[in-house]
Amino acid sequence: MTPRRKRLLAVVTGLAALGVAVALVLNAFQSNLVFFFSPTQVINDEAPRGRAFRVGGLVEAGSVKRSAHDLTISFVITDTAQRIPVTYTGLLPDLFREGEGVVAQGRLGDDGVFRAEQVLAKHDENYMPPEAAHALKQARPVGKAPEP
Known about the structure:
Blueprint: H1 3-32, E1 36-37, H2 39-43, E2 53-59, E3 65-66, E4 72-78, E5 83-89, E6 101-108, E7 114-121, H3 130-138
Parallel strand pairs: 1-2, 5-7
Antiparallel strand pairs: 2-4, 2-6, 3-4, 4-5, 6-7
């Protein structure tokens, strides 16, 4: 094999290895990417089916139900326009309360219930996750005109 062919083979092998590495990094990045959706977007089928995503809004007053047998909790997240039922098994953050902002990460089941793997709550009186605050501003109750 001539020196020119050896160099060409080395360059082609290096480019192939670089391509494989880039593909693996992009695949890992895409599989770990989690998008945020409001309850209205979830109801309008804008959220992915079969993939994890985040949904956020306010915990609807009177919707929190705790299981007597285990750590399963069900509640409803609302953006004042639409509602999403959520179930979560585990310990909730100390600041989790009805009427307060929350973001849940998980998957939407075929039955329309969001099964959360993680629940995040606000950390002080003036904070709400930016995505949830924006979703609440964009949402409007059925029958009301949009805000200017």
